Structure formats: structure tokens, C-alpha cells
Amino acid sequence: MADLLSIGLSGLRSTQNALTTTGHNIANVNTPGYSRQETIQQTNIAQYNGSGYVGSGSQTVDVRRLASDFLTSQVRSANSQNSELQTFKSQISQLDGLLSDSTTGITPAMQKFFATLQTASQNPSSIPAREAVLAQAQGMAKSFNTLYDQIDKQNGQINDQLSALTNQVNALAKSVGSLNDAIARSKAAGGAPNDLIDSREQAIKQLSGMVGLQVVEQDDGALNLFVGTGQPLVVGNTVSSMTAKPGTDDPSRFQIVLTSGSTEQNVTSQLSGGEMGGLLSYRDTALDHAYNSLGQLSLTLADTVNRQLGQGLDLSGNAGSALFGDINDTQSIGLRVMGRATNTGSANATLSITDTSKLSPSDYRLDYNGIGFTARRASDNAEVKVTVTPGVADLVTGKTSPTTLTFADANGVDQGFKVQFSADELAKAKAGDVFSLQPTRRGASQIKVDLAQADQLGFAGTAKAGITINNRGTGAITQPALTTMVSPVNTADFGRLFGDSGRKLTINAAGTGFDVSELPAGATLTIKSPSTSNVLTPGQTNVVSLEYVDPATKNSYTYEFNISGVPQAGDSFTLGTNKGGISDNRNALNLVALQTKPTMGGYGNTGTTYNNAYGGLVERVGTLTAQVRVDSAASETVLKQTQDNRDSLSAVNLDEEAAKLVQFQQYYGASAQVIKIAQSLFDTLLGAFR
């Protein structure tokens, strides 16, 4: 009877544990990360009574947590990837909207500017039409500035988000470290702390949504967390900390530093996954390219328009003034070079744009080894050849010119800029110093309209041609086009080339060429085609080139014009300065033609137009946006599937738990009945001895 009572009591205890566990499951049905539990029951050791073994009841040997490390790992991985893609999508959708919007986009502004130029070219002497060009130029510059400000604001928001994320990562990492310690101590005492394990798994899952993790279990049950390429975040109860701080190469781009004890490591380039990985990936693949492409476009547009204006004459007969600010002003050339914060030297340098058609939308890295320089293009990590031209001392002034660095890719293609170190600054450079070169990064923020007087727009051509009245033949001449020159042109050079009353080009006695006796020193006249031997071909269109190197200024000019028809010996044509050409629109038409001219280059490209270059940026961002939307939708599906797989094992099902309650209630009543029978038997036995 005592044995029967003991068996009944053991059943009550086992069933009570099962009921308690079931109630615990039901209470935590909405607890994030909770894994349902079940009691593991086994028989007590049977007693031998001489004729065999008689059972002695049951006991609860474990409260098991229903979870799979494999399914949990799948959820973490899917959560990390989904968070990365969702963050990337959120960021790039903003950029896509900015670039393609009719208000903030650049295409409408450029179209309005060139449309206004087209209108002004039809009446080049009209001051109101010229004023409209200035107004549209200011509007276009403002569009570039505004778009840059929006992109820069997004970069600032990314920095803020990285700072917030590192704080959250640190808090969760400390929580995981504390839970590791508590779980290890509990396991050492012989128990499995299921609820603590659930809390740790939930914290790790939250961490995986912030940054990609590798999880490794220790023998004592602690989980070690590693980020990047194996950098330790949590090892046992030892926790490293993450910090977002201004980058050593570019303070405007925050970097992630992992601090373990007294050791700091920049892990920015190693991180992937989670929100942090999404932000860094977006910044590297989309935002930086948008900065540079927009800057490349604004620099090229400003430079080519200014150069073209400088090839014409304004209403006063002077060389056309620049419409936009100098792309190589003192402030700009200084901001394009940044020394790394950890440099041991203190050298500063300047970066000047030399050829906008050769620029590419990329930053560069310049390394100094104490003797020479090496460079790489950041966008594709391609090595770039550096040519160093040492400074030369001036014997008169005693000053030394700057040391100049020029850059070319593996195919010898110039990169469109130069870097200069003054003699004093170069002396401050130390071996191991690194410099970030950003030729185009801030271009869109610096474009502005400097011209205030509309009459200073150089719409007229610099030279004009005519036919002498007494010619006997049918020869005709087109207006000369300036093909190579300095910009702005020097009108004094034209005075020496053409003289006060112009120059005559007279057909020689043989009718095969020109008598060039009137041309000044430095001028050369060449018939380029269709003849290849400098011979005039009557009845065909002859392309004639007039090249001039001014003896005083050393400036070089090349004019091209056509001679057609059948000129006779002694016939002549005149070339002169286009004085008073206020109704001349040849250079204005050249300005309009820039819209469809392949002025943009980079990476050895043959060139493309402004609109196509900007359209390429919009298309690139749009393609990335469409792709990441597809990828993020797929990642959501994968995450749901992995979560469902995990929940099918670990989640609490209220119907199932309710059924268990009824079942265990019946077990409990049956065990109580056993005790009642044992009591009745015991009472009967006691009554027999009374």
C-alpha cells in the first residue's frame, strides 16, 4: 500500500509538471522568440521483491525545449538577408525618385536651358532673349545644387542610422554576453535554462536583422558571435563594441570600427547583411556613383559651355565671358584632395580638372611611399599610372613651381585631372601617407552662374569671310569656323592675324592655290581636301585650314572654311575680324549644338551627350531599384518559409495545448484515484487489527 501511495504521488508530481509546462506554453503564446516546451517522463527504478521487479511510479527527468538549431540558423540567415535588401530598397527608392522626378531631376532643367539658347540664337542681338538664357542657366545650376543637397542629406541620414544601429548592436551584444554567462552557469549546475536560451536566440535574431552574423557554439553552451570576415563581437561573456565615426579617408562617410579590448579595427568593408549591410552596400554601389556622376555632368556642362562662349564675341566685340563659375577655383581644387586622418605627414595638395571629356565618375586613392606615388581607381580598383613632373626653381624669383602628378589608365588614357604639391607641402609628406582624390564628388554643389551682364554672352563668330566684288569666277567661300583655340580667345591675336582691314586670299596665276603673301608671320594656309597635295580642285568643295600661332602670346588657332565653285586666277576672298557682328549667331548655334554633342567621357568611352549621361545614371539607379524590389520580395518569401518551418516545431499551438490540458487533467485525476485507493486499502488494513 505504501508502494501504491508512492506510485500515485509520483504520478501526481509528473502530471503536475506537465500541466505547469503546458500552462507556461499557453502563457507565452505571444512572447517573441519563445519555443514551446514539453516534459520528458520516465519510470522510476523498479524494486525486486523475490518474484520479479515491481514498478515504483514515474518521474520528470527533463523539460525539453522544442527547437532546432538548423531551423533557427535558417531564420537568422533569412532575416539578415531580408533586412539588408529591405534597407537597400528603402534607400535607393528615394534616390530613384529624386533623379527621375520632373521637379528635382536635371533633364527638364537642361532642356529648358538649351531651348532658351535656341530662341536666343534666332535673335542674338536681343537683350531680353539673352537675359532669359541667364535666368535658365541659374535655374539649371540651382537644380544641380538642390539635387546634390538631397543626395548629401541622404548620406547624412545614413551616417545617423549607422550610429543608431551600432548603439543597438552594442546593447544586444551585451545582452547576449550576459545570457551566455547565465546559461553556462545554469548548465554547469545540471539544468537547461530554456527561457534564457529563448531570450538569447531572440536577441541574436534581432542582431541578425542589424548586421550579418556567424554563430559558433562553445562546449559550455555559450554562443560566440562573429561579424564580417570573422571579427569577434561576442565570445562567451566577453563583448566587443561597435562605433560609427567619421571615415579616415572621408569624414563625410562614416566607417564602422570594432573595438576589442584596446584594439580597434575598421570593419566597414567586411560587413554585410542586416540593416547595416544594406546601408553600406547602397552607399558603395549607388549613392557614391550618383554623387560622382552628377558632379561629372555638372563639371563637363559648365566647362564646355564656358569654353564655347569664350570662342565667340559679345555685343561689344570682346571675347565672350564665362557663364558659369570656374571649375578650378581655389576652393574647389583644395576640397578635391583629402589626406587620410592617420597620415604621419601633413602634406596638402590641390586637384585641377584638365579635360572634362576624360573624367570618370570615380574617386581615386593616391599612395606615397617616400620616393614616388602609386594610384588606384576606387570604382573598379584598377591601377592607374602616375606621371610625376618635378617642380622647377625660378632663378629670378627663387620660387619653385609645384610638383605635378598626371594620371592615365592601363591603356594610356588620361583621367582628365592633375594633382599638384607645392614644394613646401611635398616636403611634409611621409612614407605611407594616403590621399583620397575626388575629382567630381562635389561638382554639382559648386556649379553657379557668375555672369551678370547678358550682353557679354559670346554669340557671334570671331571671324568673317567675303568675296571680292570684281571676281570673274564662280568661287564661293563659307564663314570660317574656329576649331582649335584658347578659351577665351584673345582679340589682340585676331588683330595681328587679320589686320585692321582684313586679309586677302588671292587665287594664284595657275589657279591651283592661294597667294598667301598678305598673311602674317605664324599663319599657314592649307588645302586639306579633296586634294591631298595642297592643290585647289575647281568645281568641288575644298576644305581649307588656316592655322595661326601668335608670335606675341604663343596662342594657337585653327580656322576651317570651304571654297567651292570655279574661281579664276586673280579672284580673291577676304578674311577679317567679325567687328560689329551683333546679329551673328554662329557661336550661339555652336552652343545649342552642345546639347547633342558627345562631350561626356570616362573609362575610355568615345563620348556621350549630357542627356544620355544623365539618362544613364537614371537608368542605372532605376535598374538597381527594380532588381532590389524583386530580390526583397523573394527574400520576404524565404523568410516567411523559414519562420513557418521554425514555428511548425517551436511555436505554441493553443488548440494542441488545450487538448494537452484536458489529457493531463485526466492523468492527474487518475493518479489521485490511485492515492485514494491506497488510502482505502490502508484504512481496511488498520480496521482488521482493531
Automatic annotation (TrEMBL):
Matching SUPFAM superfamilies: Phase 1 flagellin (SSF64518)
Domain Flagellar hook-associated protein FlgK helical residues, every copy: 92-324
Keywords: Bacterial flagellum, Cell projection, Cilium, Flagellum, Secreted
InterPro entries in alphabetical order: Flag_bb_rod_N, Flg_bb/hook_C_dom, FlgK, FlgK_D2-like, FlgK_helical
Domain of life: Bacteria
Keyword Plastid appears in the UniProt entry: no
Secretion signal span: none
Flagellar basal-body/hook protein C-terminal domain residues: 650-686
Entry keyword annotation includes Secreted: yes
NCBIfam families assigned: flgK_ends
Family: Belongs to the flagella basal body rod proteins family.
Protein name (database record): Flagellar hook-associated protein 1
Provenance organism: Pseudomonas benzopyrenica
